[in-house]
């Protein structure tokens, strides 16, 4: 009714917590600080980075890229009824067309390193692959983004 909803985590990597780096609780609330709401128009994508501090005073940089996806409004179809609760025969009523609404969807990257531009580029790449419907598995994209070899100083390229 009010358009307010609750966020939920649809997919995460890694799927299970790492011992030294647990998954931040309540991150779905953090992604939409004003609340999860449906809007009648598609908003432009947004990006922000916030710093969360855990119980051990360790910083976690949370980059959030939010875009908007079309969803159908769950409006019920109406029929004309008389006072007895029976449908009237004279005036057939047409089904109500549901209005198109847009819901936020967020991609979040959590890191102990402060590299906002790298976060923006990485989340932008994931978004582009998702929106363009490319036949690349998200698991492979994430794996490739998180796995890189850094040469030692003075070593071979």
Can you walk me through this structure?
With 157 residues, the chain is an alpha+beta fold. The protein has a single domain (1-72, 100-148), classed as Longin module (Beta-Lactamase, 2-Layer Sandwich), CATH 3.30.450. Helices cover 20% and strands 24% of the residues. The chain is built from 3 helices and 5 strands; from the N terminus they run E-H-E-E-E-E-H-H. It has helices at residues 27-31, 116-132, 138-146, and strands spanning 4-5, 36-37, 46-53, 59-72, 100-111. Helix 2 (116-132) runs antiparallel to helix 3.
| CATH architecture descriptor name | 2-Layer Sandwich
From the helix content, strand content and strand pairing, which structural class follows?
alpha+beta
Q: Which stretches are low in confidence, meaning pLDDT under 50 for 5 or more residues running?
A: 76-82
CATH C-level class is: Alpha Beta
Kindly report how far apart the N and C termini lie: 59 Å
Q: How would you name the oligomeric state of the polypeptide chains in this document?
A: single chain
Number of strands: 5
CATH superfamily: Longin module
Overall spatial form: globular
The average pLDDT is 79
> Widest sheet: strand order?
3-4-5
Question: How would you sum up the major sheet?
Answer: 3 strands, antiparallel
Strand content: 15-25%
Radius of gyration: 23 Å
Total of domains: 1
At CATH level 3, the topology is Beta-Lactamase
- Helix-strand pattern: EHEEEEHH
Tally of helical runs? 3
Helical residue percent?
10-25%
GO molecular function, one term: guanyl-nucleotide exchange factor activity
Protein name: MTMR5 protein
Domain UDENN: 1-157
Region (Disordered): 73-97
């Amino acid at each position: 009714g009010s358009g307010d909803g609750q966020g939920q985590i649809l997919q995460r990597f890694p799927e299970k917590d790492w011992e030294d780096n647990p998954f931040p609780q309540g991150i779905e609330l953090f992604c939409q600080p004003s609340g999860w709401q449906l809007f009648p128009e598609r908003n432009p994508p947004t990006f922000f980075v916030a710093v969360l501090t855990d119980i051990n005073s360790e910083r976690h940089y949370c980059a959030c890229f939010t875009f908007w996806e079309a969803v159908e409004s769950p409006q019920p179809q109406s029929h004309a009824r008389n006072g007895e609760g029976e449908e009237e025969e004279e005036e057939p009523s047409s089904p109500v067309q549901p209005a198109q609404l847009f819901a936020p969807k967020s991609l979040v990257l959590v890191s102990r390193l402060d590299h906002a531009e790298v976060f923006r580029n990485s989340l932008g790449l994931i978004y582009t692959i998702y929106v363009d419907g490319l036949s690349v598995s998200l698991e492979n994209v994430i794996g490739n983004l998180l796995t890189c070899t850094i040469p030692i100083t003075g070593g071979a390229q």
